Amino acid sequence: MSVFATLDDQTPDRFGSGFARAIGLHILVGCFLAVLAIYVPGHVEHWGENASTVGAIQASMVSAIPLPSNVTPVEKSVLASENTTPAPKPPPKEATQPPPKPTDILIKEKNPLKTPPKVAPVEQPAPPKHPQPTPPTTKAASGDAATQLPQAINQVKNGTAMATVQDRTFGTRYAYYLKIVSNTVAGDWYTQEADPTESQGKRVTILFDINRDGVPENIRIETRSGSPSLDASALHALQRVDNFGPLPAGDHITVEYTFDYKHP
Amino acid sequence: MQSGPATPRSSQHSRLATLALLLAAIFIAPALRAQDWFHLETSTGAGKLRLAVASFKSTSADPATLPAKAAFDETLYNDLSNAGIFDLVSKDMTPQAAPGGQSEIQLSQWSNPPSNAAMVAFGNLAVNGGRLTVNGFLDDAKNPQYPQIFARQYSDTASENNARQIAHKFADEIIARLGGGITGIAETKIYYVKQTGSSKEIWGMDYDGANQHQITHVGYAISPRISPDNSRIAFSSLGRNSGFQIGMYSLLLNRTVNFANSGSTNQSPAWAPSGQQLAISSSRTGNMEIWVSDAQGTSAHRITQFGHEASPTWNPKTGAQIAWISGRTGLPQLYIMEADGSGVQRLTDGGYASSPSWSPNGQFLAFAWDRKYGPGAPGGQDIYVMEIATKKWIQLTHDGGRCDFPSWSPDGRHLVYSNSPDGRADHNRIMTMLADGTQKRALTGPGTDMPNWSWR
Fold it and tell me: Does the beta-carbon distance from A190 to B42 stay under 8 Å?
């Protein structure tokens, strides 16, 4: 007789009714837990659902259909509304006297007091011109500005985006192009990608070149904000842009783009 | 030693019960996973460019100037508002002035309320001795130091249609300059099927519904597909003695040209972006499979092998992938594969999908989908756009009746599709909309179907 038990000796069979009962019990426990989870705490909050605490990255399409965003018009502002406004009232008619009827008798008015005769003014010699001290040129006028004023500003949800071209004459001459660049990037900046508590009040500056065809190149961070998610969201905004439109002049321009995060 | 007893019935039953419970456990598990969410909010509030279109100044006393000017003004305004990228100053807020040139325009009038425009398009138009000349300018109203963005001069023989075409050209130039380098669609065409009685022919029209004219005269022609170089239209035609065959109509020669067909049914042609290849669904080997041939129909080779394959469409950006509808698993679903037949991927997970169209930037597929297909289900076939990289989709039409045959515009911002508001086939008309589902409008009357937007 062998020391080891043979298959014959084992009753019941390995995967027999006992095992089936064990699985059944596990499923029952699982169902009980599911029931507890669903009904006991009430509303189950899905991760990232609460819109006011926009923290987690909400799912969004990786690429965008090349249409600009629709800004809901502020109804109170007459100019932004899509509804036609009523025509403004015509200017009030000036009150005019009716013309005199032919049968009216004209009443002579008394002569007004005689005005004193006008006396020609005596010519005064002009005061001698002394050299005046030149007023000191302010820094803003001389161009030595410590901070460059942004040439295009966009308000976005949870922040502000500002663009400046390093070649200021380009920015002045072709301000419309910079406005297009600013609008395009601001429209592609998904502020939900930045963690709100960490990025609050921070700003990141991105530097990038635009070549002759309008393609952004050489995207790099100039000043980090200290919030990696804000930096990443700014870089992604630039990466989403395919083309700004051909440059109106020149071979390439360098644009400094600043993203300010302000969650209300 | 006793040999093992023959497996008793109770043991067999308990094994089956175990198997059943195991399978049940496996299938319950996925249902307990958290629901996937898809929240489509793109942005942030940058808004559209505010553009004012001035009435062009007529600078000649020729009586033909005024109707040409009316056609030009209206077409220019419509083209810019159809583009979908501008916030056009509405006509009642546009100043009445019609400046003819840089010296005549007062930018403050345009940049102040009520028009508040950032850009102004204006110019002058004249008809002199049968010749129409238009000078168009685009100014930046917020930059009084350097206002001019560009100036263009157009000249053509005087006619209302030419005035419209010049307006299309000027609008396209404005859209290209201000819209991120993507060319405008004002000069593109749409080809479609028009049914008169029992015959169906291919017709063509401008992208805004103007200039509708018949092209083929073969008796029964459907699914028109214009070639990428605008020279030929491939279509499926039903002959008297044969099943569906591919026909090829040359727009340069104004007649049908040769296409090598074989087998019983050949339909739904699709051009590769190179214009050198055509994908068709053909039953020459018995079942409907996708075949790829050259533009004359020769050198055809099969790239699918399961049968029930139809409606191919190429990736216009790379020319290396094909999306199509396959019924290999039952109801027709949307698939993509490489152009040689490898790398098959399924994109839809249910319902009844049909008529895919690949977007010009290669990232989206528009298709008609009846997600709740089946007896007793609400039904409703609508246009959906799916992002191929993430397989996320958005529904663009709803509650408008049966929609089908979407086709992308070359700028990737518009879609044209056929819609029947009450479901009846003879009330089908062609509608257009922006690719986010807004600005829907009808382009044709009833009796039209299967639109196809040209490539440029």
Answer: yes
